[in-house]
Design goal:
The structure holds 3 protein chains of 3 kinds.
Chain A (H helix, E strand, L loop, with lengths): L2 E9 L8 E8 L4 E6 L5 H9 L1 H4 L4 E8 L2 E2 L5 H4 L3 E4 L14 H11 L4 H14 L15 H13 L5 E5 L7 H16 L4 E4 L3 H7 L2 E6 L2 E7 H4 L14 H11 L4 H9 L1
Parallel strand pairs in A: 3-8, 3-9, 6-7, 7-8
Antiparallel strand pairs in A: 1-2, 1-4, 4-5, 9-10
Helix pairs in contact in A: 4-5, 4-6, 5-6, 6-7, 10-11
Chain B lengths: L13 H18 L3 H18 L2 H25 L7 E5 L2 E4 H27 L2 H10 L4 H30 L8 H32 L18 H22 L5
Antiparallel strand pairs in B: 1-2
Chain C lengths: L1 H24 L17 H30 L3 H6 L2 H24 L9 H10 L1 H17 L14 H16 L11 H30 L17 H26 L5 H28 L7 H10 L4 H30 L2 H5 L27
Helix pairs in contact in C: 1-2, 2-10, 2-12, 4-5, 4-6, 4-9, 5-6, 5-7, 5-12, 6-7, 7-10, 8-9, 8-10, 8-11, 8-12, 9-10, 9-12, 10-12, 11-12
The chains are: A alpha/beta, B mainly alpha, C mainly alpha.
């Protein structure tokens, strides 16, 4: 399924200036696309717009066209759109439904809302748990899990909706290093399995590991886009408030102290 | 029958248990007097508790639950029953009266019966089971959602507030000291808890909508408690019996 | 727009007609029984009035909804109030009710309840029926399902009272009574200030009357003796919170009135007093009939005071209610007003009744030039 944004702009309710302007974006099947940018650049807003929560749930006004496989989705209600595009957020605990005692029920929450037959609900739930390798946690109380585990439960809950596309807004931002590692690994596996993902992240190393393409946002506009290794090695990243890749930082440091940069890079990629 | 529970009473349908609790509580009020509620409690509270094996916990919890009210009720009515003639005891300006004592005991027994009925329900039923059962019978899934979420939010909020209280105490929050100091110390706790919870509403709303919450109509239930025609008959019987009791009382049959 | 007014008028007529029928059936408003010496209320009349009120309100709501259905074939006022955001807010509101209410009832003994903050908050932000649901459901859960030490069995009996409170809060907010009105001319503020001071002074005097009658001294705040559970620091803090709220309310209202020059402070007092009186009327017969006037909280001292002055159970509960409830509700409305004022504009606006809580002149951004709002 292809999601296309054409000349899309968005402004929050009561805001004078738009949060997003002139966004042209295409997300294709099986692709993993990264969104980079400084703090208020518009990454989260773009995630909300792609998933449809903006303007439906969040209010505000939109401009331009958003299409799914060519079909305009302006009039689609949220529950219809949520079956095609699923979005995950930063805070693992506020994504819990608060009505379940076990991880299994928590992951099943979405399919249950869709009124699917019981066997279908159970099948999807187990599939999601297994994909994220948390089937061992099925009986645990979701409130008692670590942040990283809760985030995996949240993502499993989204996968159980069988969306065509997954949008993840800074999934590791509120996690400790152990949690970050857990979630980053899981997302990497999903990417390799061919799940379509749009992931916004400050941690560019993660983007480098999994994305084929990367967009950089600044002031609500796309300022850089292209293949991941090119964009993430671009000199201008620093101007846009994006941290450089550790490999790039290393090369630069090496060059500055006289070590041949290309030797270092070859050694790193060996 | 139903989710495996430790006893036959546990395994009854939750609506049945809720009906028993509610009918007992209302009947305790409608019966009036002292003997009525005692017999009622023995039949509808103590016996099932015995069968369910929760008698000890029931006694302890329901007494704890009833204690503040019972104590107040007893003292207020014993000493402050106006128009009473029969004096039992005089402590300074306050008099304990016979009529007061009788009324106090009546209220006490009633409160114990209600508290027992409600505690029995609480001990033998999981909250989630009742909401699922009601949902199956047609209650809106959103109302069921709100009920379940509320039950989980109370301990979560208390925990959060406790954490904030401890953190503030470590930073020198005064819980002793003068009244003004204590009042001032309260603000750094209330702010984060209330405003923080409200700020979370936005995130929770988005997460819910992302998982199909807005879809109108019923949702799938993975499991529902079992029910039987016999239990349904018992429920209706209890309600009809209660109505008959109320009518009888109101029209003065029992006086 | 006109159709909305016709619905409101229809509902109002239904209310009056039902009330009139009720009064006729009850044999007219006679001043029977004894007059309560402190609050000058006739309790038997008040009991009947409470029943008539409750039934009339239900009839009015049903009328409103029926007329809406006939006009539009949809129940938009219902679905608008009950958005996902409302459902995400209600559990927090119910938890607030229970935690604060239980602490005030069990841990400290002030003659107030503070168990409606959540109900009124939902009523104000989401709407009358959402507020009513919060109150009703919250009380039922509080009695049956919430585990000890927070469980409070009498709450279920007062579920109707809680529903009424939520309903009224929603109606007041819907009528834009709680919209901030800053920078008012000084003469208006002075009038409002005088009115507010009179109301608060009157209620405070009545409250102190009850206390000194019973115990000859001001109330002390310490955890009740048989509550080891509540010795935890959190509850001592919450107990002081309750005191702070009541004192803070009076001070705060005047600050809002004269420093922020916000006329709405006076409206807070009016809404609180009105809600309090209605709540007292509806809860008195329940407290008297079911519990003999005693519910385990600090309000029991007031009931004792009235009883010792020779009043019957019904009179005592009504008297206690008419003293405690207005103070409690004014305090609660004040706290809710503070909370709503502290919320960011864009957070508030997303709630169903959010627009009515914004200052005049905070107009929503105009559409056009390709910009469009949500259509789904």
């Amino acid at each position: 399924m292809t999601i296309a944004l054409d000349g899309v702009g968005y402004r929050y309710a009561g805001a004078t200036s738009p949060a997003l302007l002139d966004i042209d974006l295409e997300l294709r099947d099986g692709e993993v696309v990264g969104l980079a940018g400084a703090s208020e650049a518009g990454k989260s807003t773009l995630c909300l717009v792609v998933s449809g929560l903006a303007p439906r749930t969040v209010g505000g006004q939109i401009r331009g066209r958003i299409t799914l496989d060519g079909e305009d989705v302006d009039a689609w209600p949220m529950h219809r759109l949520s079956q095609r595009i699923a979005i995950g957020f930063q805070n693992p605990s506020t994504q819990l439904s608060q009505v379940t005692d076990s991880v299994f029920e928590e992951v099943a929450f979405g399919p249950m809302n869709l009124a699917l037959p019981r066997e279908e609900v159970a099948a999807r739930t187990w599939a999601a748990l297994e994909t994220l390798r948390i089937d061992a946690l099925a009986e645990r109380d979701p409130r008692r899990l670590s942040g990283g585990q809760q985030q995996l439960v949240a993502i499993a809950g989204l996968l159980a909706m069988r969306p065509a596309h997954l949008v993840l807004d800074e999934p590791t931002a509120q996690l400790d290093p152990a949690g970050t590692h857990l979630v980053a690994e899981a997302i990497t596996r999903l990417a390799r399995d061919g799940v379509s993902i749009l992931v916004a992240e400050q941690k560019v190393d993660l983007l480098a590991a999994i994305c084929s393409r990367v967009f950089v946002l600044d002031g609500g506009r796309v300022v850089l886009d292209g293949w991941a290794d090119e964009v993430l090695a671009d000199r201008r990243l620093a101007e846009f408030g994006v941290m450089e890749l550790s490999t790039v930082q290393l090369s630069r440091a090496a060059a500055a102290s006289g070590v041949a940069g290309d030797r270092l890079e070859r050694a790193l990629h060996a | 029958m139903g989710r495996p529970g430790p006893s036959a009473y546990h395994r009854l349908n939750p609506l049945t248990k809720a009906t028993v609790a509610t009918v007992t509580a209302i009947a305790a009020v409608a019966l009036g007097g002292v003997v009525g509620p005692i017999i009622l409690a023995a039949a509808a509270v103590l016996s099932p508790a015995l069968v369910a094996g929760v008698l000890g916990r029931l006694a302890r919890l329901s007494l704890l639950l009833a204690l503040p009210i019972a104590l107040s009720a007893f003292i207020v009515n014993l000493f402050f029953f106006p128009g009473a003639e029969q004096v039992l005891l005089r402590i300074g300006p306050i008099t304990a009266t016979g009529e007061g004592l009788r009324f106090a005991i009546e209220i006490l027994v009633r409160i114990l019966a209600i508290s027992g009925a409600v505690t029995l329900f609480y001990l033998t039923t999981r909250a989630g089971d009742l909401t699922v059962d009601l949902e199956r019978r047609g209650v809106s899934s959103r109302v069921a959602f709100v009920a379940n979420a509320s039950v989980q939010t109370v301990p979560t909020m208390v925990e959060r507030a406790s954490l904030i209280t401890d953190a503030q105490r470590a930073r020198g929050l005064d819980t002793e000291g003068s009244m003004w100091r204590r009042i001032r110390g309260v603000v750094p706790i209330v702010g984060p808890v209330i405003l923080g919870s409200i700020a979370e509403v936005e995130e929770r709303t988005m997460a819910l909508e992302a998982r199909g919450f807005t879809r109108p109509g019923r949702r799938t239930l993975l499991w529902t408690p079992a029910d039987s025609a016999r239990q349904a008959a018992v429920r209706w019987g209890l309600v009809v019996g209660l109505l008959a009791l109320i009518v009888a009382r109101v029209t003065g049959v029992f006086g | 727009m006109e159709s909305r007014w016709s619905r409101i008028i229809a509902a109002g007529l239904a209310l009056l007609v039902t009330a009139a029928i009720g009064v006729l059936l009850a044999g007219g408003i006679q001043q029977t029984g004894e007059q309560d010496p402190v609050t000058f209320a006739y309790h038997e009349v008040a009991d009947v009035l409470a029943l008539i009120l409750a039934v009339s309100m239900i009839v009015a709501i049903i009328t409103y909804l029926v007329v809406e259905w006939v006009q539009t074939r949809r129940l938009d006022s219902l679905s608008h109030q009950f958005s996902t955001r409302t459902f995400a807010l209600i559990p927090i509101a119910i938890a607030l009710n229970i935690i604060l209410g239980q602490t005030v009832v069990a841990a400290i003994k002030l003659p107030i309840y503070l168990d409606s903050i959540g109900t009124i908050l939902v009523g104000v932000l989401a709407g009358p029926l959402a507020g009513a649901l919060t109150g009703f459901l919250g009380n039922v859960l509080w009695a049956y399902v919430i585990p000890p030490p927070f469980q409070y069995a009498p709450a279920a009996a007062f579920a109707v009272v809680a529903a009424t409170i939520g309903l009224l809060a929603g109606i007041f907010a819907r009528a834009s009574l709680l919209r901030p009105r800053p920078d008012q001319p000084i003469n208006r503020l002075v009038m409002a200030g005088i009115g507010t001071a009179v109301v608060i002074a009157g209620l405070a005097y009545l409250a102190s009357l009850g206390y000194t009658t019973a115990f000859g001294g001001p109330p002390t705040i310490a955890p009740a003796p048989n509550n080891e559970v509540f010795d935890n620091g959190l509850f001592i803090v919450l107990g002081w919170l309750a005191v702070a709220l009541v004192i803070g309310t009076v001070l705060g209202l005047f600050v809002i009135l004269f420093v922020r020059r916000d006329l709405t402070a006076a409206y807070v007092v009016i809404c609180g007093a009105a809600t309090g009186i209605v709540a007292a009327l509806v809860s008195a017969p329940i407290a008297a009939g079911v519990f003999g006037g005693v519910t385990g909280g600090g309000t029991d001292f007031l009931v004792a005071a009235f009883r010792s002055a020779g009043l019957s159970v019904g009179q005592a509960t009504l008297g206690q209610g008419l003293i405690s409830d207005p103070i409690d509700k004014i305090t609660t409305f004040f706290v809710v007003y503070l909370i709503v004022s502290a919320m960011a504009r864009r957070t508030k606006a997303r709630f169903p009744q959010g627009e009515r809580l914004l200052e005049e002149g905070d107009a929503p951004t105009a559409e056009g030039d390709g910009w469009r709002g949500a259509t789904a």
